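Section: Multi-chain targets

For targets with more than one molecule, the full set of components is provided together so that the structure can be written out for the assembly as a whole rather than chain by chain. Components appear in the order listed by the source. The example entry contains two components.
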Amino acid sequence: MEYRNTLTTCTYCGCGCNLFLESLDGRLTGTIPCKTFPVNEGKLCIKGWNAHQFVQSEKRLKKPLMRKNGELTEVSWDEALDFAASKLKEIKQANGSDSVGFCSSAKVTNEENYLMQKFARAGVGTNNIDHCARL
Amino acid sequence: MAGLAASFGSGVMTNSTSELEESDAIFIIGSNTTSSHPLVATRIFRAIEKGAKVLVADPRKNQIADLAHLYVRHKPGTDVALLNGIMKVILDKGLEDKKFIAKSTEDFEVFKKQIDTVSIEKTSQITGVSVEEIQAIAEAYGKAERGSIVYCMGITQHTNGVNNVKSLANLSMLTGNIGRVGTGVNPLRGQNNVQGACDMGGLPNVYTGYQPVTLGPANKKFAEAWGVDELPTNIGLTIPELMHGIEKEEVKALWIMGENPVVSDPDANHVVKALEKIELLIVQDIFLTSTAKLAHVVLPGVSFAEKDGTFVNTERRVSRVRKAVEPVGDSRQDWQIIMDISNRFGFEMAYDSPEAVFNEITELTPSYAGITYERIEGPGIQWPCPSLEHPGTPFLHKDGKFTRGKGLFHAIESKPPAEVVDDEYPFWMTTGRVYAHYHTGTMTRNSKALDNEVPEGFLEIHPEDAKSLDIGDGHKIKMASRRGEIETRITITDRVKKGVVFMPFHFEEAKVNKLTNPAYDPIAKIPELKVCAVKLAKV
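Its structure, encoded as tokens over all components, is:
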């Protein structure tokens, strides 16, 4: 059996507490608050203590889906990505760059937000990018 | 954030969470701190133990109000009136910091002229807060050596949200409570990486580090770094404007990553209609959210536990996210999904890790220039951090030297919310959060322990209102606004005032955002989620 602790930052609110994700044989089993992190100093709230729970939910999306005959249907990554990219290109060419919009996210990492706005601006050529900072 | 940027030159939390312990007066307005930011609330508890005075103003008597030395319940949407009243008292009693005002601020005279027109008695009428209580807040905060202001969505989610924030900035400058440990104006950011999403240019008007997209040196710098001839210089569309654009058939494609606007956005029926109409909807998420169900293509990303990267917390602290387990099923790293689409689209991206992306960010972003993965192995670094030797910045605007030079006072007049109660819709309705849930519930409602705590939505209503409607605790009620109707159970409580009801927005099946008003602040484009008019009927 392999037991591991991985130090990371909580995914819930803006406090930004650090916690250890406990895993046993590659499955998350719990969280432990980080004592040395200046924000939470060894404490967590009810969400932080349970931050591992949704990760292995049965309802997680496991495969790309595409709408076919009105229904969302499992497809391969290649099919999903080809469709998304070619359709984006087609719409941009037909209607101009500003006919495309992007919502980046307060849930994903900095690196991922950076790449999305880079693609929007340099790839598609639009500043139509926002996220739900206002909500 | 636009309000703070206009006043101080920087639209972020000015001080650090831990500094609240050093404050001797903490004024909390529009923040349900114990539910929404529990580990900030911990610092406020410690401050109370050390003798700090805690002042809370909120239309709903939340948990932190129970611990306050003084709690006032102002009517929804009357924040500016209350703050102007407080500042009027401070000026009348000579509690302002004349030296600080003279040395470090500008436009004080314009501001003072406006405050001179304020009458405390009239303020009391508008807000429903007594003259004595207004005076007590003014004295406690005005006399503090180190006064701190804490606010959240209760201040910003209004059609005059920017003015609310500017008023708080006025209050801090008026008393010199800025630029020192334990002071400042401290907006608590709601989501774990909302600060990071803003810092990274996930906004229609700026690149990373708030560098403007309009024609200028930043536009040129980014075009060069990204290897394109030119970058667009027109300011893009915000989310409400994008939805509007879809209806007008000007926006034809939308790529949504990790957001669920169908539950989180105001006037939800309207959002659904727009998304059903669009030619291409790409949704990248970890669950099949209500938004994903409308998509043409759904791309499974991974959760925080399955990825490497960085988040930025409310106090500007950049810290590491580390992969603990392998992604479930065939889900894929979100940064790789973006790269995959970009490369297929014809814009080449070749990064071998999130760290490689981060290094490009720091090269292009002066406030992040000194941050590396190696340097944030421990407690993280608070930006601005301009060089590798720089330790980071726990509090901004030190010694009255504001990011914009001098702090700018604004003369702000109070105005009523966009929608007010009338005979047909006689109740004020306000929305918020509960301790066990997070935003649209995508994660927390899929966590057993959290779902058990608060399994369904509810409406808080005052005992007298419940009595006059002839409904008992836990009974069902129909609630309608001009935009829609929902059914929900009620909780009878005096946390809300007579004539005001409160409902959390986490629950898809009792979707309160079908009712909320999409009217938004003209500058920040934040919708007025905190105030609308509703009617109630027994089911």
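Strands of chain A lie at 3-9, 18-24, 27-33, 65-68, 71-74, 100-103, 129-130.
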